[in-house]
Amino acid sequence: MKKKLEHLAVVGIITLVFLVYILSFSPHHIGNNTNTSLPRNKTVAEQVNETPMETETSNRPVEVKYPRISVKQGNGYTRVEYVFDEVYWVNVIPNGVVLRSGSGLYFINGKEVKKYDLEYGNVRGVFQGYLVAVKGFNVVVMNESDVVWEKPLEPDSSVGVGKDFVVIVEPYYDAYHDLNANVTFYFPGSGEKLKYHFRSGQVPLEYKLLVTGEYAIVGILYPWYEWELVYFKNGRIVWREDIGRGCAKGASISEVYIEFELSLDENGYGYTLSDDGRAVNYFNEHNFKGICLNSSRAVGVEVFDGCIALKMKYLGKEKGIYFYKWGDSNVEDFKFKENFSENTVSSDKYLLALYNDHASIFDCSGEVLRIAGSYEKAYPLKDDFVLVNETHIYLPFRNLIIKIEGIKIIGSFKNSIVGVQENKVIIINISSA
User: Fold this and answer.
1) DSSP H or E run through 213
2) Helix (H) or strand (E) holding 196
3) Burial class (CB in 10 A: 0-12, 13-18, 19+), 140
4) Whole-number pLDDT of residue 246
5) pTM (2 decimals)?
6) What is the pLDDT of residue 52?
7) Long-range Cβ contacts of 411-414 (<8 Å, 24+ apart)
8) What is the spatial order of strands in the sheet that 113-116 belongs to?
9) Contact present, 145 and 158 (Cβ < 8 Å)
10) How far, in whole angstroms, is CA 166 from its chain's centroid?
11) Contacts of 236 (CB under 8 A, 6+ apart)
């Protein structure tokens, strides 16, 4: 019996030593290796399942959302950089920027970014969050995901976008085979539609449409090459004026040329210039005036703050920029003359002209500021201008210089400057003066 107990004791000791040996190699043995210790509140099963899940996730492609935005604060401005995968095209419109990238169609106004589900189509503008595009034979008005209004278009129709509306000019022939024009204003915010009908007659198909801000102007061609301009504000007719071939009401198109240039700005100021350069009309929502140039010939017009500037060769003599007060109708009544420049731009109150070695800013009484240096182009900027060369942009009324570091400046809207650089769109927001 004693020997049997001794034998059992030996077996027990051997078994105990073997168990201790096995436990010393266990993966859950808690010792000095901190990498194997369990996080608090986690079970062994949770710890074991974590490793394969992480390995599987790391092999999946990471989705990058565009644009990636960075902001840099400068002295008197804020530079916002929008980085895309690719940038195919960029258009500057009166209230922002529309661009097509590899990841979609975007609208940026310096404060917000909207992405629209439009795979193809000719974008005409964006307002109040609605994008307007001509898609095939239809005009579509859409928010970021859905089409809110769609209309089939007749051939040779025109589409314009204003501050709160889209306007469509459509030709059609009536039962008498006379050519007519239907004009439709649509306000998606309220759902309101305003429709107008104009009978133009049996003439070749041709209409003109300009829209900016609250204003729109439609040019309708009548028989014998008589034009009528219809001026709208917020979709309602303000005035209608005929342009004949004489100089009775205002300056007309000439006997030979039936084409003319038509311009309209966000303040409702505009002009017409006949193709031969001998007749000018200028207007706003209150007035419609004209100047017959006769022996003179204009190659360009600027209209701003009660002033008309004609870039012309006066009476066959020296070319220059001739300034007239609003209401003047005699070509000889110009207030002053400046050296000629083809490169001019106007803002609310001023005209800027670029010359070889300087730029000059004028109002209707004379030169108000001269800027030394050579600049390639200029853009209006609300109450200032943007002068551009290869190294920097300059805002003369703020006396502000901003280095552009290889950025190509392509335009401006409101108080913002737009540039592009590879796959980046840069918007420089200028602080209020």
Assistant:
1) none
2) strand 192-201
3) buried
4) 58
5) 0.81
6) 36
7) 411/92, 411/379, 412/92, 412/379, 412/380, 412/381, 412/386, 413/92, 413/93, 413/94, 413/95, 413/96, 413/97, 413/109, 414/94, 414/95, 414/382
8) 87-93, 96-101, 104-108, 113-116
9) no
10) 16
11) 194
Neighbours of 239 (CB within 10 A): 15
Nearest to 233 by CA among 269, 261, 198: 269
Instruction: Name 398's Cβ contacts closer than 8 Å, sequence gap at least 6.
Output: 76, 384, 430, 433
Digit-coded pLDDT (tens) for 195-239: 999 988 766 667 899 999 999 999 988 877 778 899 999 999 999
In angstroms, how far is the first alpha carbon of the chain from the final one?
Answer: 110
Please list the residues that pair with 418 across neighbouring strands: 411, 427
- Over the stretch 283-324, which tens digit does the pLDDT of each residue have? 999 999 888 887 888 999 999 888 999 999 887 778 999 999
- Give CA torsion, residues 39, 42, 47, 53, to 10 deg: -110
Residue 175, both tokens? 């039962």
Residue 125's nearest CA partner among 83, 154, 167, 87 is: 167
| CA–CA distance, 20 with 26 (Å, rounded to integer) | 10
Rounded distance between C-alpha atoms, residue 37 and residue 25, angstroms: 15
Residue with tokens 């307002």: 127
Strands 424-430 vs 215-222: parallel, antiparallel or unpaired: unpaired
Q: Which residues lie closer than 8 Å to 169 by C-beta, 6 or more apart?
A: 157, 158, 159, 181, 182, 183, 207, 209, 218
Average pLDDT in the chain: 83
Report the 10 Å Cβ neighbour count for 214. Answer: 17
One-letter identity of residue 242: D
CB 385 within 8 A of CB 345: yes
Mean pLDDT computed over 385-389: 97
Q: Is 355 or 294 the better-scoring residue by pLDDT?
A: 355
Number of residues in the chain: 433
Q: What is the residue type of 145?
A: S
